[in-house]
């Protein structure tokens, strides 16, 4: 009876369960990013910087259309009740990433040990609750309390990527990973698009910035309810999966599900792995460029190009729409080339990572030299983010190539370490742009250029696209390989086989 009920429910789904998981994973990342970035736009309406603007004259300043008409009179940011410096704002914006970095490795461990479903779900639920509390907390405790709350929000989102990697490693066959990676991680761009547009919409015409946090907090809670119902950590524990899909996934997915096999994590071998270090450098470069855009593009639009908040919300969303679309195109192209053997997985990862690093680096420099030509500046930012979409079929899924059995722990280490970019960039840009002038922002973009290009060179030299010896537990086993290394172990295996053959011959 139970089996018949399960089959009836499985037929109600029009698409395979791994694609249902992909869609819910997309919404998970979307939800995570809306709660992460909503403050980036809201802070422009929370802080009254008219006083500092009047004290500093900028000869390169652009024409201002950021003022709001209320009852026929000019009202400049009617809900701007805080007087925070640029460095204080940068510190607040970076607070999220302190917590985000702390819980990456524990989140990866919990996801591998107990499954990605609840590790991811509970983490994002806690962030949604903290988002709802933001207006009350900041009004009660100011910048200090807001910084602490942002750290707690980051801690809730820390397990997101490691847990998702674990779930994808259990559900997605190797030849579908670029497309599924583009689908799921493209949720970051959906979140940026949705978060930026809705934030601008909710605050347009003098709207209260508190509504932004109430809206996205409720959105996060609604996602958690859907995730709890429709998604499971592994195909074998999913009650609604069809027998055909379950058989297909068990035959094609190469990740280990036995906890005793996955434990312990070969940290010593991981740390000594050259491809892992190459991936880490690429991740640092990606995060530096990405967080520069995500965290500070709204401030550049408002403070330098002088767009009003509604226009800023819309124009900030467009580059992420371009990135989302391009991520699918890059993912499709990479999968086709690998499947038809036009290039190896390694070559594909290097090509797409290079496009996603050098292209945006050039575009943001061109944007900074376009001055007050708003059309040109926005066009360069759109091109920059579109090219950055190549990261999702490049280094972003490289952890699945190197270590499908330890994808959660490896992703946790890579993402947790590279999050230092998110900690440094907002505060550094705040220090480099004390008066938020065009010339000061140009220097900040040159720093971003150097980091993107430099880290990409390292990745191109030492990247790999093959499963690493320390991950293939079924071939090598524990602990001899982690002690001796793959080459010596291979020789030991040959000696063992010779002994067995000699013993068999003697018998």
Automatic annotation (TrEMBL):
Keyword Cytoplasm: no
Segments forming domain Major facilitator superfamily (MFS) profile: 20-467
GO CC terms, sorted: membrane
InterPro entries: MFS, MFS_dom, MFS_Na/Anion_cotransporter, MFS_trans_sf
GO molecular function list: symporter activity
Keywords recorded for this protein, A-Z: Membrane, Symport, Transmembrane, Transmembrane helix, Transport
Protein origin, superkingdom: Eukaryota
A Pfam short name: MFS_1
Residues spanning the signal sequence: none
Membrane association type: Multi-pass membrane protein
Name used for this protein in its record: Major facilitator superfamily (MFS) profile domain-containing protein
GO biological process: one example: monoatomic anion transport
Transmembrane domains' residue ranges: 20-43, 91-111, 118-138, 144-169, 181-206, 212-232, 269-291, 317-338, 350-369, 375-394, 406-429, 441-462
Keyword Metal-binding recorded: no
Location in or out of the cell: Membrane
